[in-house]
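Section 4.2 – Deliverable D4.2 (structural model, holo form)

The reporting period included a commitment to supply a predicted holo structure for the target in complex with guanosine-5'-triphosphate. Inputs used:
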Amino acid sequence: MEPKLTSIDNYTFSYSGEVTIPQAPPEFKSGFIGIIGRPNVGKSTLMNQLIGQKIAITSPVAQTTRNRLRGILTTPEAQLIFVDTPGIHKPHHQLGEVLVQNAKIAIESVDVVLFVVDGSAVCGAGDRFIADLLIRSQTSVILGVNKIDQQAADSKVIDESYEQLAQSHEWPIVKFSAKTGAGLPELQQILVEHLETGPLYYPPDLVTDQPERFIMGELIREQILLLTREEVPHSVAIAIDQVEETPTITRVLATIHVERDSQKGILIGKGGSMLKAVGSAAREQIQKLISGKVYLELFVKVQPKWRHSRVSLAELGYRVEE
Ligand SMILES: Nc1nc2c(ncn2[C@@H]2O[C@H](COP(=O)(O)OP(=O)(O)OP(=O)(O)O)[C@@H](O)[C@H]2O)c(=O)[nH]1
Ligand SMILES: [Mg+2]
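Output (structure tokens):
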């Protein structure tokens, strides 16, 4: 994917602090689309594919996404603002509660909900729980069946389970693969049909509302999700301490917060091998993000039980986003 202008940092602000946004042509459509669903169904992968750039991290580990993140797609006819959300699940700690609460708030603050389900498995209790939340809200819903590339040849039972869910609530249903891109043009079209005419909310070349720093932290966390296992991925939070740009290189200093000494040990690895692996993979990703050379230095710090404390959560960037 070719990087476009990444984030709001790249914009020059006028004296009033406002970005100048061009006026939309008549009949232009725009609006906010909430991507809602269980953990691991492919919500973030889908958003990246639709906007054509990686801004959200993805992984096979459930509960990858922790913040609401906007991804913006502007075409000649419409501006679609996708709101990626944490997967809705049964929370086991304060962090989980904040994540689920934010996903629920998103349902109420968007124009359309794209309810994403995993088309490689039958509709389950987790999906029905979310369906119940959605019917209690006024927001219109489209059911998106993802991962059709992973469906077995005989997927009749799976298909029927989602068709039944869609029919019982009179939701339109679209099938696609966020991985291969199959079905995505049709999805985009149905989403545009569900939007009302409206203005450009963001400059046409902007792809996310988040600062680059935030995405840098996420790219580091993504490598930890991919390279470590068991309790480590969920116990990690990243703080970007410093970003210093020189004409030749961008220096990034970041701290990885964990909850226990044992996790710190795993993250550093034998002779520093794990931290080195995380650092070099994350550095490559950050270089792609900013299209420039990066020097990345990582520190590991133990902050006991940060996931259980509202104060620590807020310090690390996890708060209820009203
Ligand atoms: N085969 C296949 N795999 C997919 C598809 N979409 C996503 N995946 C994989 O599913 C896993 C989860 O993807 P994510 O995009 O992180 O899922 P998510 O719904 O954002 O997960 P949370 O942030 O934890 O709620 C990753 O390993 C993806 O590569 C798809 O269309 N086909
Ligand atoms: Mg996600």
